[in-house]
Amino acid sequence: MQIRSLAGAIKVFGLLVIMVGFMYPASAVQASWLDRVKDIYQLPENVEQIQKDYETTKQQLEDQKDKLSKAIRHSQETEERLLGQNETLKKENEQLQERLKAMEQIALDKEKRNQKLTYMAVTAVLLIIFYLVLGRVFRFIVWRRQKRRMR
């Protein structure tokens, strides 16, 4: 009895599955075997096209790689040139600093020399004036002594 009821339940379940299957719409139509054969024969054309595309893309990548390497070389050359110019300018700057210090020292020495010459000239003029005044004073003293003796 249990086998009959189990068999009946299986039949009912099978009928439900079939009914549900008919109720759902069919999926998209699959290509027929003829279409598949055509695709297989067209496959070499597709492979050739894919290969051409691959080669084109590969060539483009090589071109971009070459351009990038050229740009890198150019930037390295520019960097080296600028570093060389920087070193040259540093050396020139140091030389100019040394020349500036030398010129400042020359200007200081010239100022000191001019100051010494001025002091020497002023001293000479004062000595001459002192000599003249002292000569006058000495003559005056001598004149007074002679005047006293004459009296």
Entry summary:
The chain has 151 residues and is mostly helical. 93% of the residues lie in helices and 0% in strands. It has helices at residues 2-23, 33-150.
**For the report, how would you describe the main beta sheet?**
none
**Which of globular, elongated, flat, extended, rod-shaped describes the shape?**
rod-shaped
Structural class call reads: mainly alpha
Please compute the radius of gyration using only Cα atoms: 60 Å
Percent helix range: over 70%
Low-confidence stretches: none
What is the typical, i.e. mean, pLDDT? 85
Number of strands: 0
The separation of the N and C termini measures 193 Å
Total number of helical segments?
2
Portion in beta strands: under 5%
Instruction: List the secondary-structure elements in sequence, H or E.
Output: HH
Notes on the structure:
- With 151 residues, this protein is mainly α.
- It is 93% helix and 0% strand.
- It has helices at 2-23, 33-150.
- The chain is rod-shaped.
- It starts with a helix and ends with a helix.
- The mean pLDDT is 85.
